[in-house]
């Protein structure tokens, strides 16, 4: 997007509201020894499993971790895979076995069954469908192989030793709070026109993002005036954004849920010659961050592509029967929800290295 003088004046503003880039961790109890790969021989009351006095990155016993995720047909998913493999390569005590990505639940189930038969020490799984993969994940747990569930939850908490999630509702809240800050800063008033370009409406994650956005806007007396849905693809993003622009002659703020589909959204803006609004993105692509640097975008809200990489780190500790050295309760938590920080011109340099290519 080339950006007119008026556009540049509007987007080059310091962030009024950003969320701390912190890890929100909630522990929901500790799994029984039968699913934590511990051996109970009754020989001693001394707990030798906890090794929180030393750095978690110090080498431990060698472990084999199986990793399975969907097909990388989306920039964010490709980053999920690459970050996971790069993280595993950092540890000399980890052998990572990567199943070929697939969008077919039955194929992914067979991959997990292979990991079980091979007797891997832990499994990190981003399921194509959480409900469809619940049973085979449970079978792995019952076989004594801890499972780390990433991004898409199983239908039974017992199917995973640990679950790592992005904060979809929090992502919407962050975008909405930032939009409220723009309304206040620029005196847009109660008649501000706010638009939303969602992802797939059938997905709970999309519903959560929209709910968070609406809830945050309500806090400053605003609401969503126009909402369209895309499908997390470039083509659908362009089509949805084109429909939105045809419906409104003037818009103050646009929030797009996904920076991959944002490539198409930006193309629609360019084709229509429209740049009168503040543009907020979602997910944290490198494209979006470069647009922020260039003054073509106001902000983007991170949905971490590091979730599987974090899963590798935690699977390694669980398989080695170690805990987290930075926690007083040293056991690896049962549930971890990652933060949704807002990236602006003020902090884009910090986040750009973690941006994924669309």
UniProtKB/TrEMBL annotation:
Main location: other
SUPFAM superfamilies reported for this sequence: Periplasmic binding protein-like I (SSF53822)
Subcellular localization, as worded in the UniProt entry: Cell envelope
Pfam family, one: Peripla_BP_4
Signal peptide: 1-32
Region described as Disordered: 34-63
Transmembrane residue ranges: none
Domain of life: Bacteria
UniProt KW Chaperone keyword: no
Gene3D superfamilies associated with the record: 3.40.50.2300
Periplasmic binding protein domain span: 65-320
UniProtKB keywords: Signal
Family designation: Belongs to the bacterial solute-binding protein 2 family.
Name this protein carries in UniProt: Substrate-binding domain-containing protein
Source organism of this protein record: Streptomyces boetiae
């Amino acid at each position: 997007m080339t950006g007119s003088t008026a556009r540049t004046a509007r987007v080059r503003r310091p962030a009024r509201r950003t969320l701390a880039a912190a890890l929100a961790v909630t522990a929901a109890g500790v799994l029984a020894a039968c699913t934590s790969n511990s051996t109970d021989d009754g020989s001693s009351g001394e707990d030798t499993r906890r090794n929180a006095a030393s750095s978690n990155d110090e080498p431990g016993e060698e472990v084999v971790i199986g990793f399975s995720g969907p097909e990388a047909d989306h920039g964010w998913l490709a980053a999920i895979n690459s970050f996971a493999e790069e993280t595993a390569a950092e540890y000399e005590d980890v052998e990572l076995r990567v199943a070929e990505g697939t969008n077919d639940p039955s194929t992914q189930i067979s991959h997990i069954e292979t990991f079980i038969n091979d007797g891997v020490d832990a499994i990190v799984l981003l399921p194509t469908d959480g409900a469809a993969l619940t049973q085979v994940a449970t079978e792995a747990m019952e076989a004594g192989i801890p499972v780390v569930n990433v991004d898409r939850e199983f239908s039974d908490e017992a199917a995973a030793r640990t679950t790592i999630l992005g904060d979809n509702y929090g992502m919407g809240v962050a975008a909405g709070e930032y939009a409220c800050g723009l309304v206040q800063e620029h005196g847009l008033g109660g008649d501000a026109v706010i638009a939303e370009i969602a992802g797939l409406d059938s997905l709970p994650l999309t519903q959560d993002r929209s709910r968070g956005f609406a809830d945050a806007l309500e806090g400053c007396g605003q609401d969503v005036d126009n909402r369209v849905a895309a499908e997390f693809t470039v083509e659908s993003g362009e089509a949805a954004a084109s429909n939105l622009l045809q419906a409104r002659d003037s818009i103050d703020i646009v929030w797009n849920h996904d920076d991959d589909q944002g490539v198409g959204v930006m193309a629609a803006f360019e084709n229509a010659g429209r740049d009168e609004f503040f543009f907020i993105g979602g997910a944290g692509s490198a494209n979006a961050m470069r647009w922020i640097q260039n003054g073509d975008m106001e902000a983007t809200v991170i949905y971490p592509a590091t979730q599987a990489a974090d899963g590798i780190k935690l699977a390694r500790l669980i398989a080695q029967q170690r805990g987290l050295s930075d926690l007083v309760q040293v056991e690896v938590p049962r549930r971890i929800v990652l933060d949704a920080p807002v990236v602006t011109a003020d902090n884009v340099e910090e986040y750009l290295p973690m941006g994924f290519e669309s």
